[in-house]
Amino acid sequence: xxxxxxxxxxxxxxxxxxxxxxxxxxxxxxxxxxxxxxxxxxxxxxxxxxxxxxxxxxxxxxxxxxxxxxxxxxxxxxxxxxxxxxxxxxxxxxxxxxxxxxxxxxxxxxxxxxxxxxxxxxxxxxxxxxxxxxxxxxxxxxxxxxxxxxxxxxxxxxxxxxxxxxxxxxxxxxxxxxxxxxxxxxxxxxxxxxxxxxxxxxxxxxxxxxxxxxxxxxxxxxxxxxxxxxxxxxxxxxxxxxxxxxxxxxxxxxxxxxxxxxxxxxxxxxxxxxxxxxxxxxxxxxxxxxxxxxxxx
Length: 297
Hints:
Layout: E1 10-27, E2 33-52, E3 57-61, H1 76-88, E4 94-99, H2 110-126, H3 133-142, H4 146-151, E5 155-159, E6 163-166, E7 174-179, H5 186-191, H6 195-199, H7 213-221, H8 227-233, H9 236-245, E8 250-255, E9 262-266, H10 269-282, E10 287-294
Parallel strand pairs: 3-4
Antiparallel strand pairs: 1-2, 2-4, 2-5, 2-10, 5-6, 7-9, 7-10, 8-9
């Protein structure tokens, strides 16, 4: 056992986050929203490489690296490292390499997943329990999705993202993720949600995580309350949902998070891969990714 100052470089996954459903249950005076959402994580995602270094640095690679903010103050990876080091009284001397595979402003938690991966990685390097209150407080400050991404497991997310309840028996799902290659501001989507829509929140019974056909049947009764404002701001969301729902073996087509990425649930890996090929064939300019959910990291 070391004191946490002697460690070797390693890789930490930052899986994409999918909201199987998302209910907006209220709006606070400060503009934040209360949510209830069933969240899963996929085998697809970004990768964080961490190495000890004299000072904090960040290098970005990957297909979506060029779309990230240039100002370091706006980078969640750097903020995560700086804020965790500050609350723990440590030197933030680490070299971070981010392989950015998740589209930016896509509703599947790319920035939040990266920040959470940094927190997990630093806890691992410094031999800190990621469940410590200081770590959880930093996660909450970084964004509403960061606490659930920090856990990296299937979970119910409630409150303003600060209440995370892991679920252990949900079935793994074969998915196709589709993004029209357009960014969508989460803040604008939430702002466009009316008070009347929030008041009529579709609060169905929780999905029974028993892996049977009733899982998909109950999931289909839920919805993503942000779909209407996202469609208004980005009409291509409607086209994506229509393309997914029209495919054979698609059990459910829905938008994730604040969009514009949508997902289709299929009955097998082969069906998902075939569906992805069909969508790319008819919409070659879209970003399409077949993947599978995973219970935990």
